[in-house]
Task: structure prediction
Amino acid sequence: MPTAFVTGWPDITNSGKMTMEEAKKKFSGVQYVPINKPCLAVEDDKTRVKHKGNNLGDYDAMFPRISISYKDWGYNMCKILSQHDIYFPYSPQSVLWAHNKFSTMEVLKRHKLPVPQTYMAVNTSIARDIMKEVGFPLIVKLPQGAGGKGVMYIESEASAASLFDTLHTLEQPLFIEEFIENPGEDLRVFVIGNDAYGYKRVAKDGEKRANLHSGGKVEKYSLSEEEKELGFKAAEATNCDIAGVDLLHDPEGESYLIEVNISPGLNGITKATGKNIAKKIVDFTYDKVKK
Result:
């Protein structure tokens, strides 16, 4: 039987536990490797990712869950593992793209996919000029925010004043995005190879962000063929076999991609669809590596 390991947060999350439970049914020698525990080694004529004396490149598959806190570390880990005969569902570059919102938008646009008008500036006076050009309201994000954190809805130039002061003090770049009018909801397209599963996320009252971490709720939703196709194309553009692709519609029904998540949570999609998504991920990965 093929072997596999699951990597992720220092303390295993519920999504990690769900994956581990299913992986043990299909793979032998399954173990959980906290993201901060491996050692990256350049020794002799080889590079390795080592954990407790074992070369993780000797496994057949990895189920990676790399948070933004470990973006650079995860990139280097995946880059080394990509030189070994081990399967994981995205490229090392995907880690950098997915954990930088501007990079995500740039690569999607490069593949001629629909995204909001997007800008980034490190100079606050330039950012003010961009905001006036784009018009209010608009969305300002920290480029490396996650789970809805670092996402701000700006109604006017006056409401942006304190934001400018804070970000200037922190020396943070400004990621500016046109506001796509919508009823405070978006769609998650969960791509697993050639299959796609979806649900709707609805923001709580008075909130623009529909993220579950921001208080959003999950609703069942049947994806259209167009929505599935956008999910597939976004995953392909970012070199992902498995990804959570977020999109929203404007009042005219036009679609806009707003995020590609390489470590999507399993709770929301499992609850909304009633399907064992962890099992589908494991089955897909097993088919990739079975002897």
Q: What stands out?
A: Residues 3-90 form a domain with the Rossmann fold fold (CATH 3.40.50.20).
